[in-house]
Amino acid sequence: MEITCYRDPELARESHLLPAATYNLAHTLLARNPSGSLFVPIRAMQYLAILDAEEFVFLDGARKCWIDIAWQNFRPQARTSLDEPVAYEAVYYQTGAANLMPRLQAELPRALNALAAKGRIDGPARVLKFPSPARQ
Fold it and tell me: What is the pTM of this model?
């Protein structure tokens, strides 16, 4: 899938922290995707998150290909353990976009978990028994 996205001039930029579980899950899902990008529908907000190794961008379903918010400059190297939050910058391209941040930070982990659950194989595990090789 290919989507062309556009940005209005940057209106504001501020620092935030992304919970470690969200950052780690996003990068785990990205690593599974050979294209290097991940499309995450946030149905509760009618938004689409597009994730890649450099940034996460958020598109409103009503504005289609215009980026409302981008999360950039992730600094995972600044943390001392994998369970610490990751610092990043939120860049706002729409008036009032800063008001969406608390909801995006709550809904993105839910959407990522839903996406991860689709790839799980549920059911009992089976152990295949192979004959042992003959010893000489």
Answer: 0.83
